[in-house]
Write a structure and sequence with these properties.
Layout lengths: L2 E4 L9 H35 L6 H27 L4 E4 L9 H6 L5 H35 L1 H4 L12 H5 L3 H79 L1 H21 L1 H29 L2 H6 L1 H11 L4 E4 L7 H22 L4 E8 L2 E8 L12 H11 L3 E5 L6 E8 L2
Parallel strand pairs: 3-4
Antiparallel strand pairs: 1-2, 4-5, 5-7, 6-7
Helix pairs in contact: 1-2, 1-4, 1-7, 2-4, 2-7, 4-7, 7-13, 8-9, 11-12, 12-13
């Protein structure tokens, strides 16, 4: 794909005479280059079109496009001297990997920028011819008029052949001097206009179209990324809701059903057997406490109050305190954006859950640090390894959650360990 690259070199501002010299050289050199480009490209196109019936025209056309590329690159080098902008280049469409002979051969023919280079080589010829004539004329009139007292006396003069001063009734020498002064005053502006006309035409065909295509491509990529993040957010939300539903069904809901049954039995036993009723109430109270504990645990998995009130470091320390595996913490004390803290918290919570349930680890380390505009959270353990992002696995939901906010998840967990889970996410 075509893309624009620019150097950090910014052309220096020049004085009037310095810019006049640069513009003059640009136009004068552009004329022979225009002749060469027009001759080469027209010859190549004509020969290639004529040989298409024998298939020999295809390599001729490809060679013509490459010749236009070379001439265009030369022009891109010359443009910054006139328009005083950083040098810009175009990277053409790359050859596809594992492309066969014919696909590689036809590749340049499908690159729009190559045909724009061809169009420039054709269009520049009349433009460079016009600007060359104007610049040569203005320089000749300025230098000729100002130097007329030196060379005018040596030119034979026939009184019967009247020239412009004679027709206007002006003395010859003052007329040409005044004409030279007027043309010399306008010379920098006329030459500047010709150079800019030629340079901006070249820039439009050789650079601006590619830049516009890149902007469109970037917007398309951005839209695709936004759609992907939206899909990840929806998937992560659906996964979290299914997990919450399952946890409520398997935990607090079953205990509340048991609590309801126990209370009903205690009501029936209250008159006939108060002792049994008291024992049943005690069991119901125990079920209520366990259901409350499970609900608190589930609420921590949704949005723990300590995370909102005291930040990531305190919330992760609370997680580590409840972990069955010793956890070493190296965390940031500063507060971050709510989205970053919540994503980092869920990363650590899911990783520590996997460590406790599946790893067989004896120790674990949690690290959170700022790397530029990125918050990097790493959870490492010395367990048996084998962790992976798979459908239905908590790490898959975590990956979706991170992707939804522009983050990424990496997992290194070879068989035998150790396991390293690393999340990178924007923190601003």
């Amino acid at each position: 794909m075509t893309s624009i690259t620019a150097t950090n070199e910014v052309p220096h501002r020049r004085g009037l005479l310095g810019q006049l010299g640069i513009d003059t050289i640009y136009v004068l050199v552009g004329f022979p280059l225009g002749i060469i480009a027009f001759t080469v490209i027209i010859t190549g196109l004509s020969l290639g079109a004529g040989l298409l019936v024998t298939l020999l025209g295809i390599p001729v056309l490809v060679a013509t496009i490459f010749a236009a590329r070379a001439l265009a690159e030369l022009e891109r080098v010359r443009i910054p001297t006139v328009i005083n902008r950083p040098r810009e280049g175009v990277r053409y469409r790359a050859r596809p990997e594992n492309a066969g002979f014919w696909r590689s051969l036809f590749g340049p023919l499908g690159d729009l920028q190559g045909w724009l280079d061809v169009a420039h080589a054709i269009v520049r010829f009349p433009v460079s011819t016009f600007t060359f004539v104007v610049v040569i004329t203005w320089w000749s009139m300025a230098l000729g008029g100002l130097s007329y007292p030196i060379w005018g006396r040596y030119i034979p003069y026939d009184a019967d052949n009247h020239d412009l001063p004679d027709l206007l009734g002006f003395p010859r020498t003052p007329f040409y001097i005044v004409l030279g002064v007027v043309v010399a005053i306008t010379l920098p502006f006329v030459v500047r206009g010709c150079a800019l006309f030629e340079a901006w035409l070249a820039r439009g065909l050789l650079i601006e179209v590619a830049a516009l295509r890149n902007q469109v491509a970037d917007l398309t990529v951005g839209q695709a990324a936004a759609r992907s993040q939206t899909a990840s957010a929806v998937a992560a939300e659906a996964t979290a809701l299914r997990r919450l539903e399952r946890d409520i069904h398997d935990g607090p809901q079953q205990r509340l059903i048991r609590l309801s049954v126990d209370l009903g039995r205690a009501k029936e036993q209250l008159d006939a057997d108060p002792t049994a009723a008291r024992e049943t109430v005690d069991e119901a109270l125990s079920q209520a406490k366990e259901a409350l504990a499970e609900l608190r645990s589930l609420s921590r998995g949704i949005a723990p109050p300590i995370l909102t009130d005291r930040g990531l470091a305190a919330a992760v320390a609370s997680l580590a305190g409840r972990s069955t595996v010793p956890v070493e913490l190296n965390l940031l004390p500063d507060r971050l954006s709510p989205a970053a803290e919540q994503a980092a918290y869920f990363t650590v919570a899911e990783a520590l859950t996997n460590v406790a349930k599946h790893s067989g680890a004896t120790q674990c380390q949690v690290t959170a640090q700022i790397e530029g505009d990125t918050l990097a959270v790493t959870v490492a353990d010395d367990g048996s390894g084998g962790a992976h992002v798979a459908k239905g696995n908590g790490l898959a939901g975590l990956a979706d959650r991170l992707h939804a906010i522009g983050g990424q998840l990496w997992i290194s967990s070879p068989d035998g360990g150790p396991t390293i889970v690393r999340a990178e996410l924007p923190h601003r």
